[in-house]
Amino acid sequence: MVSTSDWVLIVYIFILVTIALFGLYTNELRKRKKFVPKLKIDFKKEYPYIVKPAGDNFYSINFGVVNEGNSKAINCEAIIEEFYFENKKRNLIKDNNIFPALLAWAAGPNYDYSPTDILPKAVKFIHIFYIATSANSEFQGKLIFSMKMGRVVPLSKSRVLLAFNNIKIKIVIYSGNAKKCEQYIEIKAPGIKRDNKKQNLQEMQIKLT
Length: 209
Hints:
The chain is an alpha+beta fold. It folds into two domains: about 1-35; about 35-209, Immunoglobulin-like. It has helices at about 5-35, 195-205, and strands at about 40, 50, 60-65, 75-85, 90-95, 100, 105, 110, 115-120, 125-130, 145-150, 150, 160-165, 165-175, 180-190, 205-209. The strands form two sheets. Strands 1, 2, 3, 7, 8, 10, 11, 12 and 13 form a nine-stranded antiparallel sheet that branches. The longest helix has about 30 residues, at about 5-35. The protein is elongated, with a radius of gyration of 25 Å.
């Protein structure tokens, strides 16, 4: 027969074991949280976010995907999942015909649509659109999206060119081991011709919301 003192000892030991196991569990969770990759979309009005490609009429506008975590984010893909453009009444209209569209990882003149890895504290760039700067271009001061078969592509491979003044997009970054990164971005271009081509860049407004 188990005495009262034995039951007290058994309960005491059980409590100690439970506390120890819970401590190990929470410690493991903290470690996993500390070392998990964490993705963020970023933009600055400087190189390599703004790149002058071959030719003199357009600037390529890129956004950075930053891994703020402490481990590698694997198999990352970038997609424009929602696209809104401003109509003549200045209302935002959602486009469901051409978008969603896959974005390319921009590495110099090369565009890569394959899933990519992003190291801790590193950044990789996705090409989003162009802004026309030439005074002779009908697109000057507008946001230019170069499209082909559900992808945003370089101008040289474009089948469809879309020109806008004001837009709002939702970019989503998917990863094999990081939490999905979602970012709405509002972009406003001058929409008028300027003699000074850099003024188009200065007047372009980009807001991450």
